[in-house]
Amino acid sequence: MQAAVETRQARPEPTLKRKLAAYLALTKPRVIELLLVVTAPTMILAQNGLPSLWLLIATLIGGAMSAGSAGAFNCYIDRDIDRLMKRTQGRPLVTGELTDREALVFAYGLGVASIVWLGVFTNWLAAALSLGAILLYVVFYSLILKRRTAQNIVWGGVAGCMPVLIGWAAVTGDLSWPPIILFLIIFLWTPPHYWPLSMKYKDDYAAAGVPMLAVVRGRAQVGLQVILYAWATVACSLLLIPIADMGLLYSSVALVTGVWFIYETHRLYNLAIRHVNVSPMRVFHGSIAYLSLLFIAIGIDPLLPF
């Protein structure tokens, strides 16, 4: 009892700056950054040039709020297992910087604000897709799939694909084949992006009772699945060339970075089957670089004359 009192006394008094930082952490800002990286280039492709600056900014703000709301809901739902995992012990609901009620009110408020914002400043199709993204991540992934199946990240990753549909809809007011291909690229990319991370934090997930693929299957099996999805991702990225009439820049980047991405996944698998030390985070960080370069090329290609 005395130790608990001393711990509470040792905790610094909350300040406005720390409170704001806690709310920001609740939104998972690094995830938001990646989602915005794919949204802006999609809007340029949809416009076949530069969309209006205000539309671009309004869509990015709405998308950031939508993703932040989903992240906050996820932190609230997973607060029990976050306390068991070393990787997540710094999250605001674990440290006590925020109460459960504060997090839940913030998540609902940010979600409603994102839908209204997109509906007013872009269009209601984009707003509806934003609502769909939140529901997919919160209900389909966090509540239903995550703790029940090793395929959680495959189908739960659908929510992370929604920003390209939102960005396209914000510009055109409808959907067509190019955004569907972009959706599929991110859908297929998510497993080879996330499964290497789960390999590194396998013990964390096992302790929390989360059946990530790395927990229920061996390293070689995970490595093989990463390879298969990487090949599918690259093949899908090449489909965009004829469907969206992509030019030389995108074609070159998709091919070169695709070969590099596939090579890295094969390297991970080869190390795994030889039972030597593997470096899954090399594939994890490499996958982020791959997707970022691919979408930068998507954003630049329509602005070039070739």
TrEMBL record:
Enzyme class label: transferase
Catalytic activity: heme b + (2E,6E)-farnesyl diphosphate + H2O = Fe(II)-heme o + diphosphate
GO BP, one annotated term: heme O biosynthetic process
Record-linked CDD domains: PT_UbiA_Cox10
Pathway as given in its UniProt record: Porphyrin-containing compound metabolism; heme O biosynthesis; heme O from protoheme: step 1/1
Extent of the signal sequence: none
Single GO MF descriptor: protoheme IX farnesyltransferase activity
GO cellular component: plasma membrane
Subcellular location: Cell membrane
Keywords: Cell membrane, Heme biosynthesis, Membrane, Transferase, Transmembrane, Transmembrane helix
Annotated EC: 2.5.1.141
Membrane topology, from the record: Multi-pass membrane protein
Transmembrane regions listed in the UniProt entry: 20-46, 52-77, 98-118, 124-145, 152-171, 177-195, 222-241, 247-263, 283-300
Misc note: Carbon 2 of the heme B porphyrin ring is defined according to the Fischer nomenclature.
PANTHER family: 4-HYDROXYBENZOATE SOLANESYLTRANSFERASE, PROTOHEME IX FARNESYLTRANSFERASE, MITOCHONDRIAL
Record function comment: Converts heme B (protoheme IX) to heme O by substitution of the vinyl group on carbon 2 of heme B porphyrin ring with a hydroxyethyl farnesyl side group.
Family to which the UniProt record says this protein belongs: Belongs to the UbiA prenyltransferase family. Protoheme IX farnesyltransferase subfamily.
Protein name, entry field: Protoheme IX farnesyltransferase
Organism: Agromyces terreus
Gene name of the encoded protein: ctaB
